[in-house]
Amino acid sequence: MEKNKIFHHGFSHDNKTFSSLEGAISPVNSKSVLKATVLSDRATFQIRNHCLSRVYMMGNIRSIDRRHVIHELIVEDESGYIFVRFNGSDTKIQNQDLQINAYVKIHGHICEEFESRFVMAENIKIITDHNEITYFGLELILFFLEKGNVKENKSRPLSEADSSRSTKKIKTSVFKVESNASKEIAKRLQYQNENLFKRVFSCIANFGCIIEGVHFSQIHSLVDENCDPSAIKVAIDALMEKGMVYSIYDDFHFRVTSN
């Protein structure tokens, strides 16, 4: 007789394998990680009485610190920011070539040191497929719907009307996630660009007293040396088109336009 297969988070497992994973991997966002309750052993975290032994999340990389053996990221999602750490010698993660503003999926576990909470990553994968982002959003919604209804489901059996209402809620959530996924990404990109433009303009303005202006390499270093230079150039070009800055000498020195 063929062994039964169960699909869990996009992977198929037989019953034996699934039993070892069930309840072990939970979708989370930054806010839920920070709000999770830590037990007396300082190593176990819970959300609504559900143990978060292993978690996975998605978000944009906003900062990368590679100065130490344990590398550290700041990751932003729709709910806020969270620190993510990983072993700098882990070739599986290093092969991903992580960059600022990359959208990533992170598998790991929650840790806390000196009242500072973070996710210790076991694996990090760059995400380019919008469908995967949408699917994660749906899993997150279903996870919290399920955990939020635990008490109600224990107190009384689920009627046919309740089941119908739950199905409608889930379908509505699916449509909302799918329709908002592209809009959310567009909003994030717009926010990133506007924030970068402000930082670049502020940097150039701070050197307004220098006749020869500030050099591109210095702007890049002061704004964010981990940022792609082409992104800095796009920001400068946009500011020049708006008449806010202008180039001098070899087109690599810039000054703020006088009012």
Shape: elongated
Strand order of the largest sheet: 7-8-9-11-10
CATH class of the largest domain: Mainly Beta
Amount of helix: 40-55%
> Helix tally?
8
The H-level CATH homologous superfamily of the largest domain, spelled out, is Nucleic acid-binding proteins
Strand tally: 14
| Percentage of residues in DSSP E strands | 25-35%
Mean pLDDT score = 75
Sheet having the most strands: 5 strands, mixed, barrel
What string gives the helices and strands in order?
A: EEHEHEEEEEEHEEHHHEHHEE
Which CATH architecture of the largest domain is right? Beta Barrel
SS-based class: alpha+beta
Which stretches are low in confidence, meaning pLDDT under 50 for 5 or more residues running? 1-23, 150-155
- Alpha carbon gap, first and last residue: 81 Å
From the 3D structure, determine the CATH topology of the largest domain: OB fold (Dihydrolipoamide Acetyltransferase, E2P)
Radius of gyration: 23 Å
Count of domains: 2
Pfam families: RPA_C (PF08784)
Protein name: Replication protein A C-terminal domain-containing protein
Keywords: DNA-binding, Nucleus
InterPro entries: NA-bd_OB-fold (IPR012340), RFA2-like (IPR040260), RPA_C (IPR014892), WH-like_DNA-bd_sf (IPR036388), WH_DNA-bd_sf (IPR036390)
